[in-house]
Structure of 2-C-methyl-D-erythritol 4-phosphate cytidylyltransferase:
Amino acid sequence: MSERLWLVVPAAGRGRRMGAALPKQYLPLAGLSVLARTLARLHEAFPEARLCLCLDPDDERFDPAAVPFADWRRVPGGAERVDSVTNALAAIAGEAGADDTVLVHDVARPCVRAEDLRRLASAVADDAVGGLLAAPVADTMKRDDGTGRVGGTEPRDGLWHALTPQGFGYGLLRRALAEAVERGVAVTDEASAVEALGLSPRLVSGRRDNLKITHPEDLALAEAILAAQETPDSSADRNDSA
């Protein structure tokens, strides 16, 4: 892939599961908004990257002062994540090369570490397919029987939690998303669209504290994680499973 790096951050969600008056990207987190915290982490790792920030066209809460990047643009977000990412890729069609690296990151993951970001970017730059940050499953996995009871225990060997960012070449990612939508494939993340092409993205081990803020209790947990990451021993690798 090319050394030129694009960042795509979908941030058009309404955050209904949070049950808050504001979309979760605007909720306060350690003195800043979740959005500002996430962008600051990305900028720490990639200050020269080009950013596409996908926002609801009717979003009036957004403050450009939250964006630390010199080269960035606002892109209309869509109804679903795949729509937002597709819009971002279309917006840079005249500038991005087919081999340019595109990293897509959840706005609700403000705790991602700069070293994980750089490691992923390095890994996908040398990979013909691309890849994603992920963490091996550490918990026992249960499958329900449809009635709220355990239907079985799933072996956790070989299972990973998909995280973000997820990184792919511009041309490959745009083709994967377009074909997935055309074929009616459920696109839960960018990797799933690439998988639908018959390709196997690389799993790049990431820290478990790369939390996605989804439920109300996650906000307090994210604040605790950010505080813990400031301690001298926070750089230790904590990906080992119990």
